[in-house]
Amino acid sequence: MSQRPTYITDANIWIDLHFGDLIEAALSLPFRFLVPDVALEELIVPEGKRLLALGLEIYAFAPNQVKKVLQLREAQQYRKLSTNDLFVLVAAEDSGFDLITNDRALRRAAEKKKITVKGSLWLLDELVRVVEPKRLVLGLTRMIQSGSRLPEAECQKRLRLWGRQDIKTTG
């Protein structure tokens, strides 16, 4: 039995998925999604407790990791990152799991640390496994309309791809 791929997530991913009405679908994928407790506390819409009930898991920090975050904050090496972003960065770095975020500054910091970074569009590409393309078009459109900062060309490419696909069943 193989382990499910595990990802560290930032709060902005769950906000995008909320506006796209795709949270339940994302949490049905064969992945484990972890979020630092401080990032979860950021979430008002969607509510963090609801996400936990649906299967999102909390990434627990050891005392030395909290100290590491505080040292990074004091050193001001990552001035563009909030303290919560630093928790997400440390979780991804220390766990060795890929990071899912749309935050540009967090993405750049993670890439400098050689952490693999994915975003909402990658997650939508994965959702093709469990969601009809028409629903993905609607979800991505709603995400864009809600103000998500996703690359326009990549969004348009997906909207064209999913909009053209017929719903096919295999049997």
Name the features:
single chain; 171 residues; alpha/beta; 5-stranded parallel beta sheet; globular; disordered C terminus
Notes on the structure:
The chain has 171 residues and is α/β, with parallel strands linked by helices. Helices cover 56% and strands 10% of the residues. Helix 5 packs across helix 6 and helix 9 (133-145) runs antiparallel to helix 10 (152-164).
Q: How would you concisely characterize the structure shown here?
A:
This protein is α/β, with parallel strands linked by helices and 171 residues long. The chain is built from ten helices and five strands.
In terms of topology, how is this protein built?
Elements: E1 6-9, H1 11-19, H2 23-27, E2 32-36, H3 37-42, H4 48-54, E3 57-59, H5 63-75, H6 83-95, E4 98-100, H7 104-112, E5 117-118, H8 120-127, H9 133-145, H10 152-164
Parallel strand pairs: 1-2, 1-4, 2-3, 4-5
